[in-house]
C-alpha cells in the first residue's frame, strides 16, 4: 500500500548548562503571557532559574501551577478549566514524563504553544508526540498520539545533573529497549521511509549507553555534567524521541513498543510497581526476557552485563514481583497491545522458558562472585 500523504514533525531542542538564555529568541514570537505548569519537585529545582532568564525577555510569567499527580484525562480537564490557562499565550511544561505528558495532552490538543523543560533524564517525553495516559487508579490506560511534539525543548544539563540519579538510571533501561523493540517489531517487513529512518536512528539508543552509561551514572551521582552524562541524556531524551516519532503513525503498525513494554504494563496491575519502581527500571528488566524470547543471546549478554554494571534489575526479586504474580503476568502479556504487532505470537511458554534461562544466568553469576 502506498501512502499518498503524510507529515512528520521533528522535535526542536537546545541543550547545555546555560541553555535557558534561548527562551527569549525561541518563545517571544508566540506571545507574551506564560503559564508554568510542572511537578512539585521539578518546579522547586528549576523555577527560579527559568524565572531569572524570563525576566531578561519580553515574556511575563502569569502563574506557576502544580500539574497534579498523574497523567490522566481528568487532570488535563482540571488544568484546562483554569482561568490562567485560558489567559496564557503559551505554557512551559516542567518536570518528568508524567508532568510533560499532561501538559502536552492539554496544550497540543488545544493548539496552544507549549515548551518542554525536562528536569530529569528518565524518558523521551520532552521530544515525543505522544502522551502516556493512565487511569485514576494509576494503571496504564493508553497512548494518546498527536501530530507534533512541543514547539521546543530546553534541556538544561546542569539541572538534570543535580536531579536524583535514579531517574537517569531508569532512563537507560527505557532507552535501549527502543532499539530492540523497533528492530524486532519491524523484522522482515517492507517499511515506509519514516519507519526505516526510525529503526536506523534507534541504533543510537543503545550504543552510547553501553559505551558511556556506567561512567555517566558515576558522574551524575557527583552532580557533574560531563561529556558522558551529556551523551546519555541526549540518547534518553532526544534520540529516543526522534525514533519514537518516526516509528509511530496512526495509519501504520506501531513499531514503537514491544515485549519489554508489555511486561511493564502487565506488572502495573501490582501497586508496588507504581509506588516503588520506575518505568524504565522495569522495562530494562523486561528487555532481558524479550531478548531471550527472541533468541538474541549475544545481545542478551551485552544488556545483562550493562544491567549488572549499573544496578538495573536482573530478577523478579529486584522489582518485588512474586512468582505467583509473574504467573498471572504470563497470562496477560500475550494479549497486550504492545505485542499485537510482533513477528510471532508471544506465548506463556516462551516467557516461562525465558525466565528459566534468566534465573540460570543470575545463578551462575552469583556463584562466580
UniProtKB/TrEMBL annotation:
Glycerol binds at residues 174, 261, 279. Its EC number is 1.1.1.6. NAD(+) binds at residues 97-101, 119-122, 128, 134. Its cofactor is Zn(2+). CDD domains: GlyDH-like. Binds 1 zinc ion per subunit. Residues 12-138 form the Alcohol dehydrogenase iron-type/glycerol dehydrogenase GldA domain. This is Glycerol dehydrogenase.
Amino acid at each position: 500500500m502506498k501512502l499518498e500523504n503524510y507529515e512528520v514533525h521533528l522535535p526542536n531542542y537546545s541543550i547545555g548548562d546555560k541553555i535557558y538564555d534561548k527562551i527569549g529568541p525561541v518563545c517571544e514570537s508566540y506571545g507574551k503571557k506564560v503559564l508554568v505548569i510542572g511537578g512539585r519537585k521539578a518546579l522547586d529545582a528549576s523555577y527560579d532559574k527559568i524565572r531569572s532568564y524570563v525576566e531578561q525577555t519580553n515574556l511575563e510569567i502569569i502563574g506557576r501551577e502544580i500539574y497534579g499527580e498523574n497523567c490522566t484525562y481528568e487532570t488535563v480537564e482540571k488544568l484546562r478549566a483554569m482561568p490562567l490557562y485560558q489567559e496564557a499565550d503559551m505554557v512551559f511544561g516542567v518536570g518528568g514524563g508524567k508532568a510533560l505528558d499532561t501538559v502536552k495532552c492539554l496544550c497540543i490538543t488545544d493548539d496552544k504553544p507549549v515548551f518542554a523543560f525536562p528536569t530529569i533524564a528518565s524518558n523521551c517525553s520532552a521530544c515525543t508526540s505522544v502522551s502516556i495516559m493512565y487511569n485514576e487508579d494509576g494503571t496504564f490506560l493508553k497512548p494518546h498520539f498527536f501530530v507534533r511534539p512541543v514547539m521546543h525543548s530546553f534541556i538544561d544539563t546542569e539541572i538534570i545533573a543535580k536531579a536524583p540519579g535514579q531517574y537517569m538510571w531508569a532512563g537507560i533501561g527505557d532507552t535501549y529497549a527502543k532499539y530492540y523493540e523497533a528492530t524486532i517489531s519491524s523484522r522482515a517487513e517492507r517499511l515506509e521511509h519514516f519507519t526505516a529512518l526510525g529503526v536506523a536512528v534507534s541504533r543510537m539508543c543503545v550504543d552510547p549507553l553501553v559505551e558511556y552509561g556506567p561512567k555517566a551514572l558515576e558522574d551524575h551521582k557527583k552532580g557533574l555534567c560531563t561529556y558522558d552524562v551529556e551523551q546519555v541524556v541526549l540518547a534518553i531524551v532526544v534520540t529516543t524521541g526522534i525514533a519514537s516519532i518516526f516509528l509511530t503513525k496512526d495509519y501504520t503498525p506501531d513499531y514503537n513498543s514491544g515485549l519489554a513494554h508489555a511486561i511493564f504494563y502487565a506488572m502495573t496491575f501490582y501497586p508496588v510497581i507504581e509506588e516503588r519502581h520506575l518505568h524504565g527500571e522495569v522495562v530494562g528488566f523486561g528487555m532481558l526476557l524479550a531478548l531471550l524470547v527472541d533468541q538474541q543471546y549475544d545481545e542478551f549478554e551485552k544488556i545483562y552485563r550493562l544491567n549488572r554494571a549499573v544496578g538495573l534489575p536482573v530478577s523478579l526479586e529486584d522489582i518485588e514481583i512474586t512468582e505467583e504474580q509473574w504467573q498471572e503476568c504470563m497470562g496477560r502479556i500475550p494479549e497486550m497491545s504492545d505485542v499485537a504487532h510482533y513477528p510471532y505470537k508471544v506465548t506463556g511458554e516462551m516467557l516461562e522458558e525465558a525466565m528459566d534461562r534468566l534465573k540460570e544466568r543470575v545463578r551462575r553469576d552469583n556463584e562466580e562472585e
